[in-house]
Design a protein that fits this description.
heterotrimer; A alpha+beta (769); B alpha+beta (275); C alpha+beta (195); B: 275 residues; alpha+beta; Uridine Diphospho-n-acetylenolpyruvylglucosamine Reductase, domain 3; Enolase-like, domain 1; 2 domains; 5-stranded antiparallel β-sheet; 4-stranded antiparallel β-sheet; 10 helices; 14 strands; C: 195 residues; Ubiquitin-like (UB roll); DNA polymerase, domain 1; 5-stranded mixed β-sheet; 28% helix; Diverse_Substr_Oxidored (chain B); oxidoreductase (chain B); flavoprotein (chain B); Mopterin_DH_FAD-bd (chain B)
Chain lengths: 769, 275, 195
């Protein structure tokens, strides 16, 4: 009994199939045997920006084992403009057509008997290019002398982008403006203003599982098994690409070996679908680690910003000019530009705010979603500024923040009120954890210690749609059909906990079906920390519908009103009446193995922001609130930062599974340590120069803080399932600024460019002398 | 991928190296496989030493350690006799890559690779090791201090293979191996140094701070610890010629080299005093 | 106009109909498991004893142990994460010693006794400690950590925290499960040789 209760909401039951994961016995997409499929390898562009004059494929075609070579022109001939796909702008071809826009862009695909042959044949393809002026960075792009795209091509997905169709001579594909009060005037009139030019570089997700897509044609339908967080989106994209009804496209998944935003929207899937469809055969497309670096990145972002206080120390103005470098293709950059640009002032009470947030094309690998969805880049700016302002005012950076943080019911600068966003609780928790109020041995020699805190705020993706179907089996086990993809966050586990809690059954008897668009219902995406709330609510509702059904059947059997029946782990009860679920369902159908079925939907809503002011009374369904505290030691000789204690707190509303929540917080914090200290994609004239795991830096077990403390803060959300919200991104928001603020505290230098390499720290120390 | 040849004697290996087009010795294979995957290895034939008997032997005598080229890097780290006779070398071998790569990587391949960032050459330079090179023309001994010629260029002729390394026993004194990375903690070194203080001399091997591993030495008679540090920093100055890359610019790498050498000298000096 | 890379000069785009996908109708070579053939090139047969079961596998000169295990033996806990020995997802034990199978030529392992994570018993100290400590999120990298931990404990039954860190430094867990992994190794050591 106690074990059953532990499997409900609030219990830290083990993740689904931990034993299988530990021994590697859970099947991933790349493990699927494919028989006599065509293996696909891609020839990639060598130029950052060039017109394709000719693609010479005959030598590759002549190689033994090569079945065929397909170019962008070949696909365009068959698919026309449908070749161009993307979530916000239909701007990205599966294979470059007419132009290449970044070094590494797919130009031609080889289909061969095995992967080694396919890869060898890509080296035998020759391309004639006419070079075009490259747009290497934000400065080039905004100078407006060369354009990555001739004209903007909004996709049909987002109605609010329609007015951008056909706009020419710009690299800015989207602009978001926030105007609350008169921020410039308030800044000019204010007593104390701090300013900064902040930079957060492009980074890569590097989930250890490489992407893989297997696509085939069956009875005139396009079917695929693919590593994606967005099966419902991919189904729609493929249907559009091939001009098929949704019923003739099937997208299936397996648990992902990590993703963090890398396996979303249009990755390998459009190419695989186009090849399988035009070639009429099964194809398997995968990527090496080096190729995976080119598929998507985190946006590099520049933020020029200021924060102003009046003579009493009240925050009166926040101004930010945010430029997201989205690379050659917009992907979901325009959404990031708006949703993350709007929180550039931070989670503070500020009467006047002005944000200009732009999404900018350059000739680089495309940038898309990455854990935090663009918010860590603006958090880097606002948490550095408020820290510096506190120093300027001679105030304690913790207390100064605390005084100005948004409270329950407060309206944020973009016009939406706060609910279930306990910034103060998170800040207090991390400050206490790292000993903010205790004396600190600051060191006198080469090693100097300091402490820093940072707070983050992020909106959940809104509006979105979740659906769930539940089948209760006659033996009192259940099968839950949802399209949420488990990629390590544990959704299969917590969704079962939610359903089991409602039904008073053992959650370990609930199987969550892997996303299969033929069977599992539509779900917007598994991303943006939205699933616990949205899909969790659909699951709660579908379980409640099942509970009502069971109670109805029991009431009928017992001959009592439904109000008198309750569910228990041993079955429905009403006074002295009792029956097991197995008996009840068997009695109803007269058959063993029969199932009861219910379905439910949950859809969130928003008020679109005003085009002029960027304001909305409900820009999001709910907020994520997080804080990070760091105690660090700087080796002033080498510039190396050692993290002695990192505390990370997140308001999750209610923890469905506290252990999994803690893992999300600490895992995000560890990823954030990389972003803070060493993790970045380095490009030179459009060429990625550290795109292998020998050079690209990821946190290893050696980079852990001496102490890492995840802290769960629970401020229940009125509409969340059992009060719960998501947590996947909360932990990463404030890591880099908390560490930088601790460096400022330790050695007195303010760094505005990430990562905080030892070299940058020693250079700043030398300049400071 | 080049053709793989699997000789079963040293003579056969040497013969293959002298007759095949564009051959390369395949030792542990870890670095070679990486270069193959990166498309920057240009060889037509691999001569695999795995089947040649005797190349995995380690023999220790009073005068030093003789190791075969196929001895793993990990064995140099863990073998108690090696640790006792050449502790500085053992400490440097312990810092190569990670334990799993050290299980496969070979001591012969490690030096033949000639990469300027590798840890073991710093210790071999200090200890005055000798590289035994074998070809159809016979066998010759190359002093390690003449072995690293230029960026990824060694004194080996194209038809020669490393058939052994002799490391003289470490003299009484004190030694330290220090390594600093500039990005992740387990990244390639940004600067490394082996230091031996013995018989009134300081010997220093430098890694990652010039196109080749570098060796410098000076007379430390009459110096105190600060004097030794100052002399060391002066001595290494002409040897520093860092290659700027994602791990740091020239100025930072020079700085880190100085810090690394200072820490190593100070540590060794302290060990000497404490002994 | 520039050509990248220079062409032979004998091939131009006009020699084929650029409007049609270049997919040839060609008989496919057999890739069935009956032949266990995993790559092209010079082939030889090797014997791999994987988790106690002997497999005869045809390999080419350049077949990697990783591909031989995945494609011919059918082991899927051994995974390619980086291809350069830096992430540890492809770790196997050969005769108890850890190897990056992505950098290892299969031919060299003829006759080898290979252990993969599937081959460990579910009651194995390391496996059960990882499960109990929740030392897996997505789990993709975890079999590699498990094998490195098994190797460590065989060499050093009472590792310090620093010993654990030193031995696992070449394995990447992108979910950031390191604290749980470190705890699991300590628990396994305690279980195997109680203080």
């Amino acid at each position: 009994m106690r074990e059953i209760e532990q499997s409900w909401v609030g219990g830290s039951r083990p993740r689904f199939d931990t034993a299988g994961r530990v021994r590697g016995m859970i099947a991933h997409v790349g493990d699927q045997a494919v028989g006599a499929a065509a293996h696909v390898a891609v020839h990639r562009a060598t130029q950052p920006h060039a017109r394709i004059e000719a693609v010479h494929v005959d030598e590759a075609l002549a190689m033994p084992g090569v079945y065929g070579v397909v170019t962008g022109a070949d696909l365009y001939k068959q698919l026309g403009d449908r070749l161009l796909t993307g979530p916000a702008f239909a701007d990205q071809p599966a294979l470059a057509h007419e132009k290449v826009r970044y070094v590494g862009e797919p130009v031609a695909a080889v289909l061969a008997a095995d992967l080694a042959t396919a890869r060898a044949a890509t080296d035998a393809i020759w391309v004639d290019y006419e070079d075009l002026p490259p747009v290497y960075d934000l400065a080039d792009a905004l100078a407006g002398t060369a354009y990555v795209h001739d004209e903007l091509r909004p996709s049909s997905v987002f109605g609010d982008l329609k007015h951008l169709r056909g706009v020419r001579d710009t690299n800015v594909n989207y602009t978001y403006n926030l105007r609350t009060g008169d921020a410039e005037a308030a800044r000019d009139a204010g007593a104390h203003t701090v300013t900064g030019e902040f930079w957060a570089p492009p980074t890569h997700h590097v989930p250890i599982e490489l992407p893989c897509t297997i696509a085939w044609v069956d009875s005139g339908r396009l079917e695929m098994l693919t590593t994606t967080q967005t099966p419902s989106y991919v189904r729609q994209t493929i249907a559009d690409l091939l001009d098929l009804p949704l019923s003739r496209v099937r997208v299936t998944t397996r648990p992902l070996g990590g993703s963090f935003g890398a396996k979303m929207y249009d990755r390998l899937e459009p190419l695989a679908a186009a090849l399988a469809w035009t070639a009429g055969r099964r194809v398997r497309v995968t990527a090496t680690r080096e190729e995976a670096f080119l598929l998507t990145t985190r946006h590099g972002a520049a933020v020029s910003s200021s924060l102003t206080a009046d003579a009493e120390g009240n925050l009166v103005s926040s101004v930010a000019d945010v430029r997201y470098d989205t690379g050659a293709y917009a992907d979901v950059g325009p959404r990031i530009t708006a949703k993350s640009g709007m929180v550039a002032p931070g989670p503070y009470r500020i009467a006047n705010a002005r944000v200009l947030s732009r999404c900018v094309y350059t000739n680089k690998p495309s940038a898309g979603p990455f854990r935090g969805f663009g918010v860590p880049q603006v958090t880097w700016s606002h948490e550095s500024l408020i820290d510096e302002l506190a120093h300027e005012l001679g105030e304690d950076p913790y207390a100064f923040r605390r005084r100005h943080l948004l409270r329950e019911g407060d309206e944020a600068p973009m016009g939406t009120r706060m609910h279930s966003a306990d910034f103060v609780g998170c800040l207090d928790a991390v400050a206490n954890a790292i000993g903010w109020f205790d004396p600190l041995d600051r060191g006198t020699g080469r090693i100097r210690r300091g402490r820093g805190v940072a707070v983050g705020v992020k909106a959940v993706l809104t509006p979105t749609i979740a659906n769930a179907v539940l089948q209760l089996n006659q033996d009192n086990s259940a099968t839950l059909l949802i399209s949420t993809v488990d990629m390590g966050q544990g959704s299969d586990t917590i969704m079962a906990q939610i359903a089991a809690d409602v039904l008073r059954m053992d959650s370990r008897r609930i199987h969550v079906v892997r996303a299969d668009t033929d069977a599992t219902p539509y779900d917007t995406i598994t991303a943006g920390s939205r699933s616990t709330y949205h899909t969790g609510n659909a699951v709660r509702r579908v379980a409640e519908a099942m509970r009502d059904k069971l109670i109805g059947l029991a009431a009928e059997r017992f001959g009592v009103p439904a109000e008198e029946v309750s569910l228990t782990p041993d079955g429905p009860r009403a006074g002295s009446h009792e029956v097991t679920v197995a008996e009840l369902v068997h009695g109803h159908f007269g058959a063993r193995g029969a199932t009861l079925t219910t379905e439910a939907n949950y859809t969130s809503s928003w008020t679109p922001y005003d085009k002029e002011t960027g304001r909305s009374d409900k820009v999001t369904e709910h907020w994520f609130a997080g804080a990070v505290g760091a105690r660090i030691a700087v080796d002033t000789a080498t510039g190396r930062v050692r993290i002695e204690h990192l505390a990370v707190a997140g308001d999750v509303g209610r923890a469905i599974n506290p252990t999994l929540v803690e893992q999300q917080l600490s895992g995000a914090a560890i990823m954030g340590i990389g972003h803070a200290l060493f993790d970045q994609l380095v490009l030179d004239q459009g060429q990625l120069i550290n795109g292998t795991l020998l050079d690209y830096q990821l946190p290893s077990i050696r980079d852990l803080p001496d102490q890492l403390t995840p802290i769960v803060v629970e401020s229940p959300h009125d509409d969340g399932p059992f009060g719960a919200k998501g947590v996947g991104e909360t932990g990463i928001l404030g890591v880099a600024p908390a560490i930088a603020n601790a460096v400022r505290d330790a050695v007195g230098v303010r760094l505005t460019r990430l990562p905080l390499t030892p070299e940058s720290i020693t250079m700043a120390l030398e300049e400071n002398q | 991928m080049p053709r793989l040849h699997r000789p079963t004697s040293l003579a056969e290996a040497a013969r293959l190296l002298s007759t095949l087009d564009n051959p390369m010795v395949y030792g542990g294979g870890t670095a070679i496989q990486i270069l193959v995957k990166q498309g920057i290895l240009f060889a037509d034939n691999f001569v695999d030493l795995a089947g040649v008997p005797g190349l995995r032997d380690v023999s220790v005598d009073a005068g030093g350690v003789t190791v075969g080229p196929m001895v793993t890097v990990r064995r140099m780290e863990t073998d108690p006799e090696v640790r006792q006779v050449v502790p500085l070398a053992s400490a440097a071998y312990r810092q190569v890559a990670n334990p799993r790569v050290r299980n496969t990587a070979s001591v012969g391949g490690n030096i033949a690779h000639g990469d300027y960032r590798l840890d073991p050459p710093t210790a071999l330079l200090v200890l005055g090791a000798t590289v035994r090179a074998t070809s159809v023309r016979g066998t010759r001994d190359i002093p390690i201090r003449e072995f690293f010629v230029d960026f990824q260029v060694t004194a080996l002729e194209p038809d020669e293979l490393v058939s052994g390394i002799r490391i003289p026993a470490q003299p009484a004194g004190a030694s330290r191996f220090e390594k600093n990375s500039s990005l992740g903690e387990n990244d390639w070194p940004c600067a490394s140094a082996s230091v031996l203080v013995a018989a009134g001399r300081v010997q220093i091997g430098l890694g990652a701070v010039a196109p080749t591993p570098r060796y410098v030495t000076f007379d430390a008679a009459g110096l105190d610890d600060q004097g030794a540090v100052d002399a060391a920093l002066a001595a290494i100055e002409p040897a520093l010629d860092p290659i700027p890359d994602v791990r740091g610019g020239v100025a930072y790498k020079r700085r880190l080299a100085r810090v690394t050498v200072e820490d190593a000298v100070r540590g060794a000096w302290k060990d000497l005093q404490d002994a | 106009m520039r050509r990248h890379p220079p062409t032979s000069g004998t091939v131009t785009s006009g020699e084929r109909d650029a409007t049609q996908p270049q997919v040839r109708d060609q008989a496919e070579p057999s890739l069935s498991n009956a032949t266990n053939r995993v790559d092209s090139g010079e082939a030889g047969q090797i014997t791999l004893t994987v988790n106690g079961v002997t497999h005869h596998v045809d390999v080419a000169d350049d077949t990697l142990l990783l591909d031989a295990l995945r494609e011919a033996v059918g082991v899927t806990s051994v995974r390619e994460g980086c291809g350069v020995g830096a992430c540890g997802a492809c770790t196997v034990l050969t005769g108890g010693t850890s190897v990056s199978s992505c950098l290892a030529l299969a031919l060299r392992y003829d006759g080898a006794e290979i252990t993969t994570a599937e081959g460990l018993d579910e009651n194995d100290d390391v496996v059960s400690s990882f499960v109990e400590c929740g030392a897996a999120q997505c789990g993709y990298c975890i079999p590699g950590f498990v094998l490195m931990s098994a190797e460590l404990l065989a060499e050093n039954p009472r590792p310090s925290e620093q010993d654990i860190t030193d031995h696992l430094e070449g394995n990447i867990c992108r979910c950031g499960t390191y604290p749980e992994i470190r705890r699991a190794v300590a628990v396994a050591a305690e279980r195997r040789s109680p203080k």
